[in-house]
Amino acid sequence: MSHRLVACEHCDYLHVEDDIPPGFVARCARCGAPLYQAQKGTVERPLAFAITALVLFLIANAFPILTFAMEGRTESNTLISGVVTFWQEGFPFLAFMVAVTSIVAPFLLIGAYIYVLAPLRFGFAVPGLRPVWRILSAVRPWSMLDVFLIGLLVALTKLTDFADVLAGPAFYAVCALIPSTLLMSTTLDPRTIWRRLEPENLHHTTVEELEKLRRAKADGGKVTGWMTCETCAFVATDRAAAEHGGKCPRCGTHMHHRKAGSLSRAFALLVAAMVLYIPANIFPIMTITYLGRAESDTIVSGVAALMQSGEWPIAIVVFTASIAVPIIKIVLLGWVYTATWFGKIGSLRQRTSIYRITELIGRWSMVDVFMVSILAALVKLGNIATVAPGFGAVAFCAVVILTMLSAMAFDPRLIWDRAGMQKEQGMSS
């Protein structure tokens, strides 16, 4: 009997792909990383959540989020307001990143779900289903509306201390949008979609085929090996990939055994983040002008101000996201990269787990950037009160992006590859 194979994206260990009960997670037998989570094979529920998310997203962009009232003057902001303000203030990098993470990426994510699931549900044909579904893997990490909501709550806390703030329709839309997008993703097994989109004549690599390759290698025959698609997790032999121009036979993504120059690029990006973290904490992230008196806030002073005002829960959130998480991520990634570089054998499973955690937590450091974008767009009352972004926000945003890119550039399979090489060298010597 032939069985489909699935390879762990973190250690490249091969498993037989079995059916598991809905809601259960299949984990790698070697490193413990999740392989796949089974959901009911229907597209109705995720499609319904995607349509709901689209309606909420349009409301969130069409109506005010907050209305700020002070000294008889009012000011309202929308999702796009922070982007416009950053651009007008001469911070195009901040404008671009806020636009991508809070507007563009969420829209592409929701749109891709609807574009692919609707034809599958209702049976009509549209072009480019596989390329659109492939976009999800690239877009998903940059959709940060959940982080934006935390930044919104921090900004709301700061404003309520000295002015009247009213939540608008967009505020409640964003609050409802986050669980909608979460349910949209968690109620769908991506394997189900890839199987429905795959070519009819697609050949899956099987246990039996790999056993033949192993026997051929043992007999001295030439074996090219196999690769795993990083987008759809398809396992293909080198020969099969070569027949498709080096691309995945199922989704069309370029396939490779390992990311070229992965460790060097990851190290370089991490070092750049470490350098920029210094000015991110030295320079102010924003300057608040109130009744002609200007006061600049750094990340640390902002946390201290929240603590002094008694807002301990918000202070803890900001401290964790803006100070603790970046430092922890830089230290842990540095340790993982260094251990991989020298091929240390011990704690391979622990190293893999740490890498997975750093991938998940890095994006939450954008809280301060979103908070500044909201305050700068909302507090524009001339001589009464204004909030202007500072260079510290640019440096800090760059730190967040560089650490995320560093984690994405790293190939965690190298943790096991290099340790295996060191072990073999030790046994031979």
Automatic annotation (TrEMBL):
Pfam families per the UniProt record, alphabetical: PqiA
Gene Ontology CC: plasma membrane
Keyword Ubl conjugation: no
Ranges annotated as spanning the membrane: 47-70, 90-118, 139-157, 169-188, 266-292, 312-339, 360-379, 391-410
Domain of life, source organism: Bacteria
Subcellular location as annotated: Cell inner membrane
Keywords of this entry: Cell inner membrane, Cell membrane, Membrane, Transmembrane, Transmembrane helix
Chief location: membrane
Membrane topology, as annotated: Multi-pass membrane protein
Family membership noted in the UniProt record: Belongs to the PqiA family.
Protein name from the UniProt record: Paraquat-inducible protein A
Protein's organism: Thalassospira alkalitolerans
Organism classification: Bacteria, Pseudomonadati, Pseudomonadota, Alphaproteobacteria, Rhodospirillales
